[in-house]
Amino acid sequence: MINTVKIGTRGSKLALSQTQQITDQLSAVGGFEAEIVPIKTDGDVLTGPLSQMGGTGVFAVELRTAVLDSRVDVAVHSLKDLPTAAVPGLTLAAVPQRVDARDALCARDGLKLAELPHGATVGTGSPRRAAQLLAARPDLAIVDIRGNVDTRLARVPGLPGNPVTDLVPGKTGDLDAVVLAAAGLTRIGRLDTVTEFLSSEVMLPAPGQGALALECRTADASLTGILGQSLAAVDHQDTRLAITAERALLARLEAGCSAPVGAFAYRKGSMLYLEAVVASLDGARTMRVKKATDGLSNVGATLLGIELAEELLADGAGDLADLAGSAQ
Ligand SMILES: NCc1[nH]cc(CCC(=O)O)c1CC(=O)O
Q1: For the modification S-(dipyrrolylmethanemethyl)cysteine, which residues carry it (predicted)?
Q2: Alpha carbon of 319 to those of 211, 285, 313: distances in Å?
Q3: ipTM value
């Protein structure tokens, strides 16, 4: 029997803030004490372009190991950073309600995407974002950036909340815009930097973007235990359906987290819709598909994802993009 529930998370400001919120909910529902335990992950330690670090799940592996080792009882992940392959001994016990899944443009001088000057510099480390930006605006100069959300925002001069800094190439104030997930900006209280929320016609988010994943040891997921019950209470069925479809598509494409693949699913009435895009890295060629199912179950959602992936593969998505997402 667990007395104090240990909740593992990455140590970034974003991770700590989202973990604090969900921990408050969990302990309120379960009536137990909870302690947040920051775990250092490879993704925090390694430097270099994220898209070249190879492999999937740099952020997730250490957290998962900590749960398996019983250093913590629950891991809180950003769902989009969680590899699709199941890990024996771990259960995805809760997927809380998703927040805004969109990507957001944070540009200087209040500019929107269409208003950026010809050849403007836009920072992102994500091939998915780069490809879709270039599909909309082939003239843009995409700059590979990484670091935490505040570090990325600091690259754009004059954004609300940025520290007052000079232009330092490669560091501060040197880009016209950056693109980040609206969810992350909300969670650290910096949504006021957004100059445009990118619509799904322009940019489909990463599978799972805006959602969290709570993993625990399979033995503790049982609904007879207080932890399993509390996790079940924060699970959100529509979000789980959506992310199940998105992740099934990603898995069937055998695409890594840095592949130029976007996907977004949502329930409307009695139907579950799934939209997806696969793009060449230069944005010159994109394939977009959409499909719906009335099978509102995890099996129905999984089949939807698989079927849409197979449509993309039959249309040649594998030739369009390096889906394994290794070298750029
Ligand atoms: N890969 C980094 C990452 N992982 C989760 C988020 C925040 C958004 C979310 O929870 O989906 C971010 C930052 C970003 O993409 O801007």
Answers
A1: 257
A2: 30, 11, 9
A3: 0.95
